[in-house]
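Per your request, structure below.
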């Protein structure tokens, strides 16, 4: 599943091509993805100007005066801005026609989702969709730091990796980036959440921010079936030091990295460097 850097890369890639454009029409080639596509998408979106493209956690929002189209890429979805006459391929489920002039004339925002785990929903003006309620702060915001993590961790006994991936604590830190941040901070993913010191949480928050910011600049992590808006894969995978390296030598000490399942997610760490 695309993680936060992939979604942010998609947002940045789409924004220059769709912000300020009028949605001329909506073509739904199927009535549902993960959930039924609400009628507001077809009834309210045409004729609206896309004011902005925002991201909240791993969701994208296309904001208009009538409301916001809420999209999630699911396991393998992609959004591409294409000439309107581009032949439709299998799994091209949604087209949003876009106004334009010159080279931008006759374009569509096309949502392709082979596994249909993504979604296209609607958020009314001034409201917050149920999927976005109860989410924690964005990891790159000022609201997220080591003191915040320490305060939220008190009295918790779950593994710290599970805590870090809890969307109610902080959004968008998925399995890959949690493993990388814990390695950089020298914290074992198995350590009890409430038994990590404030100083170590400060190191962890710093690692999360640095790794995510770097991954965004590099285009995210190359995941199977993931395609960025310009058709290019991400490249951060080439720099991963923990995720996917079970049994390989630790890049710091050379000891073989341990691999286990935590919360039904594969986890890799160094038992010598991470305590």
């Amino acid at each position: 599943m695309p993680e936060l850097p992939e979604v942010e890369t998609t947002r940045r890639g789409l924004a220059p091509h769709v912000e300020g454009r009028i949605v001329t029409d909506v073509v739904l080639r199927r009535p549902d993805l993960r959930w039924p596509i609400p009628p507001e998408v077809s009834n309210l979106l045409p004729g609206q100007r896309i004011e902005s493209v925002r991201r909240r956690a791993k969701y994208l929002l296309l904001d208009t005066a009538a409301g916001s189209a809420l999209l999630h890429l699911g396991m393998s979805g992609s959004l591409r801005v294409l000439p309107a006459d581009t032949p439709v391929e299998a799994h091209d489920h949604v087209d949003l026609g876009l106004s334009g002039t010159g080279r931008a004339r006759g374009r569509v925002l096309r949502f392709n989702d082979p596994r249909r785990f993504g979604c296209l929903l609607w958020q009314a003006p001034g409201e917050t969709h149920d999927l976005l309620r109860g989410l924690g702060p964005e990891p790159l915001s000022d609201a997220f730091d080591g003191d915040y993590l320490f305060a939220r961790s008190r009295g918790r006994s779950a593994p710290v990796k599970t805590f870090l991936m809890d969307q109610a604590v902080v959004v968008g830190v998925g399995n890959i980036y949690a493993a990388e941040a814990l390695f950089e901070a020298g914290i074992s993913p198995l350590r009890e959440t409430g038994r990590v010191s404030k100083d170590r949480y400060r190191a962890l928050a710093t690692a999360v921010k640095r790794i995510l910011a770097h991954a965004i600049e590099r285009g995210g992590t190359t995941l199977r079936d993931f395609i960025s808006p310009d058709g290019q894969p991400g490249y951060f995978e080439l720099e991963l030091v923990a995720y996917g390296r079970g049994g390989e030598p630790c890049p710091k000490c050379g000891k073989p990295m341990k691999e286990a399942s935590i919360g039904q997610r594969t986890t890799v760490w160094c038992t010598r460097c991470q305590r």
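Confidence is low (pLDDT under 50) at residues 222-228.

Regards,
D.
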